[in-house]
Structure formats: structure tokens, C-alpha cells
Amino acid sequence: MPRGRYSLHDPHDHTPLGEEHFQCAPGPSGWRYVAQRTAPSGDHSGSVDLTLDELGRPLRVELHSASWQVRGAALDGVTWVRTDPTGEHATEGNVRAHSFTGASPAFLIALSRLLRLEPGAGAVRVSLVAFTDPVLAPITLDQSWALLDRTGHATDTGPLVVDEYQVSEVDTGEVRRVHIAGDVVLAAPGIELEELESPPSSFAA
Q1: In a 3-state reduction of DSSP, which class is residue 141?
Q2: What is the DSSP string of 46-106?
Q3: CA gap 108, 181 in Å, rounded
Q4: Phi, psi (5° rounding) for residue 186?
Q5: Nearest CA to 199 among 168, 145, 153?
Q6: CB atoms < 10 A from the CB of 71, how many?
Q7: Of 130, 164, 128, 127, residue with least CA distance to 146
Q8: Is the dihedral of CA 33, 36, 40, 89 positive or negative?
Q9: Distance from the Cα of residue 25 to its chain's centroid
């Protein structure tokens, strides 16, 4: 069960955005990731709870940020309920999208699991609902994912397989490189893995 800490920053001007203290593991239903987020001041700023089924689809996602809350799942595309800080008003949404995304590294793992790309197989386009910080406003966007390379690295605990993805924002043309090992993001724009207490888990084929 990997447990560790990511630091988050603005990928453009490198402004610190805080940290995400996480643990994750494969389970009977698929995979689960839970995390607590802190602001640069160290104060608690939100949480992430994501459960995938064995195919990588979101069985349940629950996000908290700035007293806003989102709960969602894969249902007729993706469906969610967003609740305001007072708890008095909730708005429902549904989009014919493949999955969710957001600032958490968990969503990169989730997309890699859903797509199951092979090196050299070409890019795949996906439609996603992103929840933007700090008020978890939903935005629909399209991304293109391609697995550029898969390399093995010898470690003290055994071989570590690292996948290098190219993630392109269809609307803006922005291109990112994302490095993932099992269920841990090793590096991505705006994300740095600062601590990892145990090796990444491997997904079954």
C-alpha cells in the first residue's frame, strides 16, 4: 500500500499550491486512493477519495475543497452532485464523458488505468469533466493520451516499470509529459513526488 506525499505547484509560474498526503492500493473492487490536502501555510485545504472498478472507471469520487463538496461516479457517462459551503444548495450534473479529472495526481493514475495504452499504439482522445480548485467548478474538456515509452529500472525492492505518457489538451494545444510507475505519479508538470514509504503497487493485467 503506497503511502507518501506530493507537492503541488502552478506548472506555469511554479507558485506553491500545497501538498497532498496520500495512500492508495488495489482492492476487491479495483483501486482506491485517499488523500488529505494542505495549503502552503500547512492548513488543511481539502481531501480526495477516489475508487475505481477493475476496468478503471470511477465507482466513486468525493472531493472537498474550500468547504465545497463533489460526489460523483460513472453513470450514463459521468454524474456528480456539487454542494456549496452552506450545505443548502446542491447542483447535479451529467456529461457523456469517459471519466473525471482534477488537480490531484490520483486522476492521472485513473486515466492511465482506464486507457491501458501500449507503447507506440498512437494517441487516444478522451472527454473528461474537470473539477477546478478552489471551488470545484466542473468544466468539460478533451485530452489526447499517448504512451511514449515503457522502461524497467532495477531497484532494491525489484524491477520498477515506468510509463512515460504524452498528455495533450485538445482545446489549447498544451502538451505535458507524465511519468507513472504502477499507482504512483513519479513526475508531472505541477506535481512532484516528495516522499514514498513503500514501492508502487502493480495492477493486474
Answers
A1: strand
A2: EEEEEEEETTS-EEEEEEEETTEEEEEEESSSEEEEEE-TTSS-EEEEEE--SEEEESSTH
A3: 11
A4: -80, -35
A5: 153
A6: 16
A7: 164
A8: positive
A9: 14
Place of cell 507558485: 15
What is the spatial distance between Cα 125 and Cα 77, in angstroms, rounded to a whole number? 15
**Tens place of pLDDT for every residue, the chain, 205 residues?**
899 999 999 988 999 999 999 999 998 779 999 999 999 999 999 999 999 999 999 999 999 998 999 999 999 999 999 999 988 889 999 999 999 999 999 999 999 999 999 998 899 999 999 999 899 999 999 999 999 999 988 877 778 899 999 999 999 999 999 999 999 999 999 999 999 998 899 875 5
Query: pLDDT tens, 99-127?
Result: 999 999 999 999 999 999 999 889 999 99
0.85 exceeded by pTM: yes
Reading phi first (left if > 0) and then psi (alpha if -120 to 50, else beta), residue 89 is in: beta
**Amino acid identity, residue 61?**
V
